[in-house]
Amino acid sequence: MGWAIAVHGGAGDIPLSLPPEKRLPREAALRRCLDVGIAALKAHNHPLDVVELVVRELENNPHFNAGKGSVLTTSGTVEMEACIMDGKTMKCGAVSGVSTVVNAISLARLVMDKTPHMYLAFDGAEAFAREQGLETVEMSHFITPENIERLKQAQEAAEFRYFLYTNFSLGLFKLQTVPKDAALADGDSQIGIVGCVAVDSEGNLATATSTGGIVSKMVGRIGDTPIIGAGTYANHLCAVSATGRGEAIIRGTIARDVAAVMEFKGLSLKEAAAYAMNRVPRGNAGLIAVSSTGEVAMLFNTTGMFRACATEDGYSEISIWDSPIE
Amino acid sequence: MGWAIAVHGGAGDIPLSLPPEKRLPREAGLRRCLDVGIAALKAHNHPLDVVELVRELENNPHFNAGKGSVLTTSGTVEMEACIMDGKTMKCGAVSGVSTVVNAISLARLVMDKTPHIYLAFDGAEAFAREQGLETVEMSHFITPENIERLKQAQEADRVQLDYTQPIQKEVPKDAALADGDSQIGTVGCVAVDNEGNLATATSTGGIVNKMVGRIGDTPIIGAGTYANHLCAVSATGRGEAIIRGTIARDVAAVMEFKGLSLKEAAAYVIDQVPRGNAGLVAVSSTGEVAMPFNTTGMFRACATEDGYSEIAIWDSPTK
Lengths: 326, 319
Prior knowledge:
Two copies of one chain form a homodimer.
Chain A: E1 4-12, H1 20-42, H2 47-60, E2 80-86, E3 92-98, H3 104-114, E4 119-121, H4 122-131, H5 145-168, E5 194-199, E6 205-211, E7 232-234, E8 238-244, H6 246-251, H7 254-265, H8 269-278, E9 285-291, E10 296-300, E11 304-311, E12 316-319
Parallel strand pairs in A: 3-4
Antiparallel strand pairs in A: 1-5, 1-11, 2-3, 2-6, 5-6, 7-8, 8-9, 9-10, 11-12
Helix pairs in contact in A: 1-2, 2-3, 7-8
């Protein structure tokens, strides 16, 4: 037993050639968030507060696809989603279509704590945020130049596919494929989302996930993050936060499956996480998870996943690809 | 093996004293849907097309979906629907739909015509128009009974405040009309053909007096709706309990990971949900049917290729 915490900043096709100016700020952010989370756990804060705190930090950091730095819809707007869940009580809160709330994860927390519901979206979520006095700003606050560029590239790529389709009748170029994650010239594709899972030394578990979604998504598109059991889930056994292609994570009910397989097949956290990940098509997902007994698992079947974790016995790790950087 | 179909019109505190003028139209609605579904299966339609018969229940004002949807706290309609194909595991969901006559068909289009799984509110409405789906004024969906239900729910909330009890805002008690007609739930259909193709569809107006923007279990894959190669499930009841319990996913998970039959798995899952909160209909790839519920009743009907059929509300089938 003992506390444990894991944090992720998104799984995806993160090229090994990612230049330092893209890599270092994210590693630094993961390190800072890990430290914030560790300090909160050592101070005996409840895991729900710990995961909210950590995810807020990541939302405020423009280098991750959540809060400031969120990817843009096809209309150039921001529609953020977030979800939080308490493993012991199984209370949860989720929001979608949030465009002016500085910290969507805190709005999700309020849905859980202050309403009889679990999930509020779009205008209703925004109205509730104002009712609750949450900090709101102009939507432009969240939009970064990198994401304007990513949207432009995604739309150009889609137009090119359409051009090929209409001019060459190439059946291969389906008009409506999931937009390829628009990579900037240096390969920085900003897939994914941010998340945090934590357990304290009494076995209280919590998970929180937050995202801007996928580049050039249709207005109104909801992904896996706010879907309990898909991108976010916690019960008395474990807490899970997933990242990757939303549609694959939803179909695969990834987060729920980790816990289900632990319970129904008697697998350990690491075995269960591997089992759930193996059922997802390669290149599509990653997850972080902690168990009630302080185990940690961080798996991905993409090129990389920005991640970090620490346990009470002193272990800690920050990684992007397969070998930990520290 | 053989085809099978099950339909539900909502689980909840349906009183045994439900008067005939409330009971008979719903039984007739279920019977008609069952017949439509049976004919479609006999004609070898794909289960995805068969379960879209949920449109019939949406069009029927006696059920909490489409016309007849319960109202938000602002007196508006925000409908949700979800459809899933067990073999491909493709799925489509919509929420916050206010003018589309058949939300289930919009969910189907999200599945078939977009790279996404789930569209909501303005984005869903815009997509519906792009696709040429039939849309109407929101007033089309609003019935006098639901205006009354909303009024009663809001009065019940006020009464709670007057007593100044510690108000944890509880899930609004389903506003029961004087005759006990509380209209909980949703509508749904699951079907399997004799090749083992499975599909599920669920549609709802949500819960009475819900906050604007509130999303329930229906469009949440794994909660109210789920299908894979083993079974197809559609759940009904208190959305928040169904979401926490990941009901629909768990039926399939328990079949797979514990080796239970469909009926055993469905019963197991419903048992885990606090009493009075949920019901479901499910079919398996081998043509089994299960319709368990832990509420007073659940409007339901089913039929299998071997000739069995049933329409029921409480524990003993009415026919």
